[in-house]
Design goal:
The chain is an alpha+beta fold. Among the domains are: 1-31 and 353-504, Multidrug efflux transporter AcrB transmembrane domain (Multidrug efflux transporter AcrB transmembrane fold, Up-down Bundle); 41-131, Multidrug efflux transporter AcrB pore domain (Alpha-Beta Plaits, 2-Layer Sandwich), CATH 3.30.70.1430; 181-265 and 727-813, Multidrug efflux transporter AcrB TolC docking domain, DN and DC subdomains (2-Layer Sandwich), CATH 3.30.2090.10; 508-565 and 896-1054, Up-down Bundle (Multidrug efflux transporter AcrB transmembrane fold). Strand 27 and strand 28 form a beta hairpin.
Length: 1054
């Protein structure tokens, strides 16, 4: 027994099954976490190594190259890029999509364990980061303080972090930019020489008197005691009183005799300010699969309790909360779904005129959408922007099958059939076509889940969700819909008129007088117009072909720009400014304060400016916030929410750019919008210049930058390699080192200890540890002469001045060195403004091709443009695959090689409609728009399948070809228009949405609406015409074949 007969025969069972499924779906919805995006794990692994005091060139030579060579053997490695800058080396490894990242991390860790012994002394153990979306910060707070600034880190750790860590789902809490307490032992080198001491001896004396170790146990009578040797420094003053040496005459030399102890804050190398005040950033991360919105709400609640307990001068302000953007996006998408639901119901009510029928079809929407939550729960997914966008896309399609079934049932009831018999008979007529259209959509969306790269990572969940929803809607259409129709729809009184059975309607109703009359006239007009087209098939086909060719003009002539991902207005700007290289951090800080004041005074929308200056040697989150030099300023500017201001983020960005341009001290600057992840949007074109020689690559990049500056629409032109800054290079004489029993490694450590300092242990206070750093006092290491006069001790005890072992040379070197696939390279980045990404890339490719490159230098255009080309290539392959799969499904349904081609003629015209829609609305052809065009393949052929299937049915019933086509067209006009309008109106809220984050999905809504409008007209006109042409041609071929067989048989008989 078929599913629809079983459903009609067992209505209570059918109803309760769907009620049970709905209950499980609602339960799943309650259990699902809420997040911004599905948890994705792109194949990227980073390795970060910190080396305090190391220059970029030193780190490149001694750390980066070593790690690159070792990690180049990792299985599945596609590309390795690196950045060497002051204090830090950062390697990024891109692996093949589908590689086991856990296994790759284990391989990387094993290689690093082998290489670690070869890294410089004092270098941190390389940290390995395997990125996924759950690792992104979900909240960021600005913390300012005045009197409490010195102890800010301890206060935050004890009163804030310790409490927030108890919140379920919290993964990591970190403080960036807070002041560090250090104990400096500033040594006088003259006094050291007088007592025949060294910095190393001072450090060993300090650490040797600072112990906390277990010494075993002793038994005393019946008791056993653990021995604990404890002699830690509890106050910094204690360090002054340790004995560092004894003279020949028996006198003790105390540390205070040769050095000064300072218990203070760490020397400023990294400055963090919030709205011009001393402060820090509190960064919140979550655990995998945790509920982002719930965590953010709990953090806000706890902070509301904590803040009153803090010192009054400490202020905490929210810079960023993922929950705000998630809630805004989800609210916008939910609103789109609700409007889509209303529009769909109104379309059904308009065409059918029965509230019972409208109710039956409308039930398909909540059932299909709610059941999708079961899938999300079982796949450990979440309620996120992608999953809700998938439901928004699907809302107009989920009723299509129910419309086809119910419209046919209504037609049979109108002809006098009882509702029960009509439900069985009508469903039997169309169920094959309904399943075929569902299979078409499945073969469109399932391949979306199988591709890798950027497209696959972003839209994999969309493919699965829509597939699941469409399959469920089909099950509803051939089970619940006929069952409800058999119970809720009423039989109609009929009569015979002109030899046909017609229903007796109440002509006095408004619906009958206006709507039904209008629809009947449309049916008749369409049937007459279709007969005219069938009589003029060549003209009809020629006109359609001309329309198709003309519609391609906007794309072929560049009137439609191409982009990568739509830019969003999420209310944040990322600003970078650079002063003249070599500028002291104190001078950079002064300028930053001026710029902050000017921006805050001239742009009222600004809420918070978080400013970072300089470089950090702490590692971890702080290093990620720091830059490569003391002359660079990074600002994160919070503008506020979209609906709270009149100007867009892009207009405000222009004002910020003009304001910064007024400061002559700023050598170069860049203003970018920020994405929903808290980072820069990154929609830029990168011109990559490869070459080892700094002078040659600098010359090429300078020429490229100059040429780009002449392009209209080329903004934020930036060279990734910062301007060279002065560096003192100590070059040892190996022969002199050997004579004195030293080598370069040992001598380098000695110099480093005297300049940067050596760690001599920790001061313990209230459970905290504070570094004790021993080094020469600043007045003895502030000039080249001071450095030359540094005293080193040979293994034989001889004192040697540094100038006797080495020469000091002044050089200009870059503060950051980038490498890609073990080659040095530098990027020139440019952001398109007022011009599409593709159009600007064409201009750049032409201009770069005209540059005469020096020997050993090559240039490549990449960045977002390269990502765009790769994504479009993936979508192109996906389009071809989907076309083939759709053809296979339709050929199997019709058992014909030619009929699928008839239906698929709607596809080129869907592209026509999409192009025209993009041109009219001024929307770029980007990744989301291209994906919408691919999805149209499945959407537009559905109506063609229903129409052709019905034509075949009419021909099987004995109708002449032209009459079968005309009658089928008239009979299927309303369901075709209904399914088209439900999908179109379901997408209207997405296309017109202005909510936060809606910019991403507007292009998809535009192309689907435009493509479906045009393709629907083609389905109603061109498909029937081509059907007649191809069937008649096939009939002629069959007749010719039969005629030849007859002649052959006749001749054989003779």
């Amino acid at each position: 027994m078929s599913i629809y007969k079983s459903s009609i025969n067992r209505p209570i069972t059918t109803l309760l099954i769907f009620v049970g499924v709905m209950i499980i779906g609602i339960f799943s919805l309650i259990k699902l976490p809420i997040d911004q995006l599905p948890e994705m794990e792109p194949p990227y692994i980073s390795v970060m190594t910190t080396y305090a005091g190391g220059s970029a060139s030193e780190i490149e030579t001694n750390i980066t190259k070593l790690l690159e060579n070792g990690l180049n053997s990792v299985d599945g490695l596609v590309e390795i890029t690196s950045t060497s800058k002051d204090n830090m080396s950062l390697l990024n490894l891109e692996l093949e999509w589908g590689e086991d990242l856990d296994e790759a991390v284990n391989d990387i860790r094993a290689i690093i364990d082998i290489l670690y012994e070869q890294l410089p002394e004092g270098c941190s153990k390389p940290l390995i980061f395997k990125f996924n979306t759950s690792m992104m910060p979900i909240m960021m707070y600005a913390v300012t303080a005045e009197e409490s600034y010195a102890g800010l880190e301890k206060i935050l750790d004890e009163k804030v972090i310790s409490v927030l860590n108890k919140i379920e789902g919290i993964g990591n809490l970190s403080i960036a930019g807070s002041p560090k307490r250090y104990v400096y032992v500033d040594v006088n080198p003259n006094k050291l020489d007088a007592y025949n001491l060294t910095v190393e001896a001072i450090g060993q004396a300090i650490s040797g008197n600072n112990i906390d170790i277990a010494a075993g146990s002793v038994k005393m009578g019946k008791e056993q005691y653990q021995l604990h040797l404890k002699n830690e420094y509890l106050e910094s003053e204690e360090i002054n009183n340790i004995v560092v040496a004894n003279t020949f005459d028996g006198k003790q030399v105390f540390l205070r005799d040769v050095a000064t102890v300072r218990d203070t804050l760490k020397d400023v190398t990294f400055d963090e300010k919030i709205n011009g005040k001393d402060g820090a950033r509190l960064v919140v991360m979550k655990r995998s699969n945790a509920n982002t919105v719930e965590i953010c709400e709990n953090v806000e609640k706890e902070l509301a309790k904590i803040i009153p307990t803090l010192p009054k001068d400490i202020k905490i302000q929210q810079i960023y909360a993922a929950s705000t953007e998630i809630n805004n996006a989800i609210n916008g998408l939910t609103e789109s779904i609700m409007y889509g639901f209303i529009f769909v119901a109104l379309v059904v009510l308009f065409f059918l005129g029965r509230w019972r029928a409208t109710l039956i079809i409308s039930l398909t929407i909540p059932i299909s959408l709610v059941v999708s939550f079961i899938y999300l729960l079982f796949t450990d997914s979440s309620i996120n922007i992608i999953s809700l966008s998938s439901l928004t896309v699907a809302i107009g399609m989920v009723v299509d099958d129910a419309i086809v079934v119910l419209e046919n049932i209504s037609r049979h009831i109108d002809r006098g059939a009882a509702p029960r018999e009509a439900s069985i008979y009508a469903t039997n007529e169309v169920w094959v076509a309904v399943i075929a259209t569902t299979l078409v959509l499945v073969v469109v969306f399932v391949p979306l889940t199988m591709i890798g790269g950027m497209v696959g990572m972003m839209f994999k969940e969309m493919g699965w969700v829509i597939t699941f929803v469409i399959v469920v809607s089909t099950i509803v259409a051939i089970s619940l819909t006929p069952m409800l129709a058999s119970k809720l729809l009423k039989a109609k009184e009929v009569t015979v008129k002109d030899g046909r059975i017609v229903s007796v309607e109440n002509k006095d109703s408004w619906y009958q007088r206006v709507v039904v009359s209008f629809l009947d006239k449309v049916d008749m007009w369409y049937a007459d117009f279709l007969r005219t087209c069938l009589r003029n098939k060549k003209k009809t086909i020629l006109i359609a072909f001309l329309i198709f060719v003309i519609s391609l003009i906007p794309l072929a002539t560049g009137m439609i720009g191409t982009g990568f991902m739509p830019e969003q207005d999420v209310g944040r700007l990322a600003v970078t400014m650079e002063l003249q290289q070599g500028t002291r951090i104190e001078e950079t800080m002064k300028l930053a304060r001026k710029v902050e004041a000017e921006l805050s005074g001239s742009i009222p929308e600004i809420r918070i400016i978080a400013t970072s200056i300089g470089s950090s040697d702490e590692g971890g989150m702080t290093s990620l916030f720091s830059s490569a030099s003391n002359s660079k300023v990074t600002m994160n500017v919070n503008i506020g929410r979209k609906y709270q201001r009149e100007r867009s983020i892009f207009q405000i960005a222009e004002v910020v750019s003009k304001t910064i341009a007024q400061f002559p001290e700023v050598a170069k600057y860049q203003v970018n919008t920020s994405s929903g992840m808290g980072g820069a949007e990154g929609t830029s074109i990168d011109i990559e210049v490869y070459g080892y020689d700094f002078e040659k690559t600098n010359a090429v990049t300078a020429e490229i930058k100059e040429r780009l500056s002449k392009f209209k629409g080329a903004r934020n032109i930036k060279v990734s390699r910062e301007d060279d800054r002065p560096e003192l290079k100590i070059v040892f004489d190996k022969e002199k080192l050997a004579i004195n029993g030293l080598n370069a490694s040992t001598a380098s450590i000695f110099v480093r200890n005297r300049i940067t300092g050596m760690n001599a242990g920790y001061l313990h206070e209230d459970g905290e540890e504070y570094d004790i750093i021993v080094r020469l006092a600043e007045e003895y290491r502030s000039t080249i002469t001071d450095i030359e006069e540094i005293t080193l001790m040979s293994p034989m005890g001889a004192k040697i001045k540094l100038k006797e072992l080495a020469s000091i040379e002044e050089h200009w070197t870059p503060p950051n060195i980038e490498r890609k696939n073990r080659q040095r390279y530098v990027k020139v980045s440019v952001t398109p403004v007022g011009i599409s990404l593709g159009d600007l890339a064409k201009l750049i490719n032409t201009e770069v091709g005209n540059i005469e490159l020096p020997t050993g230098i090559r240039v490549n255009v990449g960045g977002s443009y390269e990502d765009q080309q790769e994504a479009f290539a993936d979508i192109g392959l996906l389009f071809i695959l989907i076309i083939m799969l759709v053809y296979i499904v339709m050929a199997s349904q019709f058992e014909s090689y030619s009929k699928p081609f008839i239906i698929m003629m709607a596809v080129p015209f869907a592209i026509t409609g999409s192009i025209l829609a993009l041109y009219i609305t001024g929307v770029e052809l980007n990744l989301v728009a291209a994906l919408g065009i691919v999805l149209l393949v499945g959407i537009v052929v559905k109506n063609g399948i229903v129409l052709v299937d019905y034509i075949n049915l009419m021909r099987d019933r004995g109708y002449e070809l032209n009459e079968a086509v005309a009658l089928s067209g008239r009979s299927r006009l309303r369901p075709v228009l209904m399914t088209a309008f439900t999908t179109i109106l379901g997408m209207v809220p997405m296309a017109l949405s202005t909510s936060e984050g809606s910019e991403v999905w507007v292009p998809m809504g535009v192309v689907v609406i435009g493509g479906l409008l045009v393709s629907t007209l083609v389905t109603l006109i061109i498909v029937p015409v081509l059907y007649v042409v191809m069937v008649r041609r096939g009939d002629r071929e069959k007749e010719e074949k039969l005629r030849k067989q007859f002649i052959f048989m006749d001749l054989s008989g003779d």
